[in-house]
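Hi support team,

I'm opening this ticket because the web form for multi-chain structure prediction keeps timing out on my end. I have pasted the exact lines I submitted so you can reproduce it. The total is 567 residues across two entries, so I didn't expect it to be a heavy job. Is there a limit I'm missing, or should I split the entries? Thanks in advance, R.K.
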Amino acid sequence: MIRVFIADDEAPARERLKELLQDVAAEVANSVAGEAKNGLEVLERLPESRAQVLLLDIQMPGMGGLEVARHLALLPEAPTVVFVTAHDRHAVEAFELNALDYLLKPVRAARLAAALKKAAAGGAPGREQLAKAASAAREYLSVAERHRIVLVPVRDVLFLRAEQKYVTLRTRTQEHLLEESLVALEREFAGRFVRIHRNCLVARAAIRGFERGGGGEDESHWQVMLEGVSERLPVSRRQWPALRELVAEKP
Amino acid sequence: MARVLIAVNAAAAVGALFAADNLAQALDRFVAMAAFAEPLLLAVLVLLALLSALLQRMPYAAGFAFVVAAVVLLTALYDVTLRTMVTEPLPDLWRTLVLAAITAAAVLWLLRLVAKAYSPALAEARLQALQARIRPHFLFNSLNAVLALIRRDPRRAERALEDLSEVFRTLMAEPRRFVRLADEIALLERYAEIEQLRLGERLRITWELDAAPSDALLPPLVLQPLLENAVFHGVEPGTASGEVLVRIERRGSRVLARIENPYLEAEHSRAGNRMALDNIRERLALFFDAEARIDTRAADGRYRVEIEIPYRAAPA
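Hello R.K., no limit was hit. The queue was backed up. Here is the completed structure from your submission:
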């Protein structure tokens, strides 16, 4: 019995998928674990639904399907995702290139059955696959906390600091540990974050100013001051010249 | 006329640039060439103007040959006259004649190309291309919505398919003819029914059509794409429900149409929208010249498109 979660912003489309799932039940036993009409709802409802397969419309308002999948991939029991699209050549190309399963709307019962069987056998899509298929940067960064996904809007992020295997994310009010690579984050959000140190990215918009500091042996050490953070972050000597120029252009 | 003058001078300028080592030298050469060429050019144009009635009656090939021959003849005459009047050394006569012939042929060829671009056959093809486009997103999502109805509400599914086929029939109709406003409004309403099916509560359309002149004539598919965009860019990307306003009214000798939707600032909405608007602007210009206008405005969270065309009633 495969537990299926349905995500589509159009009610008729969800109804049709439910009808089709009933149609194929003889071939592939299934039950509907839940429904959602936009990305945020999927992230709220899916974890506790314990769904194994997600039928995910990629064109939902708010958060696009690919970003939803990327956040879901953090769950310990991440569902297998089958993307659903009416017509999106670029998305389909990305799916094909990255071996991601998809269905075209209107969906045929036979194709749905095949997709379910494949999904049950396979596993959740990998985070790298999804990252490569994505055409846009995420709007949120996410953390999985005991079967729940916590979303942090990227514009609230003040700095990202790599510490051993993890990256610490800091906003005005929260701190989280991400399992991401700082280099990948820098690339994904190019322009929004600026490197001040080998292991630290800082939000450009949050930079309040710089201060000479450190005292002690090296007077030439600079530190950056951020809005909303009392801690001063050290700027590495290597990054300082580029950083200073970058900030000089700041309006 | 102006085009010929510009073309020949441009050619001279380019020639001067090629021949010279630097810009100053090029300028010198150009001036020298122009000094030689302008009187000749004017003489040629005057001659051709005088003979235009004759030229128009000739088949193209004959006319082409005639013009080139005339240019060469005039150039020869001009050159000979110049030599008697001027002491400066002039370029070799044959070289000048060949250049003149080539320039004349080139200009004639260019003019023909430009004329072709505006000829009726091409305009027709452009109209076709401009008009016949069905957004796949709409097509597949609508079919999907109809399929969803088939078991639960077969009658509604039937009506929806009928609406769909009428919409597509209109989208593929012959481009040149005018349509009556009443028909375009019927299309809008059918289109709206289909979108309402898909989006349900998320789409709320207000119709203000009481003052619309049903017998007004306009090119087909001017209003439907605007409604489509209003839904696609203004309602679908939103999670809450969106209100769309469609108002059509007559003001004296003009017909005004206004379509409004929620203004959502997402990046992609601008590009697609602009293409559709340019399309409509071009078609309105093809039908009404400068008498039609289309304007857009974004204010207070609403996006508005306004079209104004002259009121032309269908013959009774």
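A quick check on our side: The mean pLDDT of chain B is 83. Let us know if the file doesn't open in your viewer.
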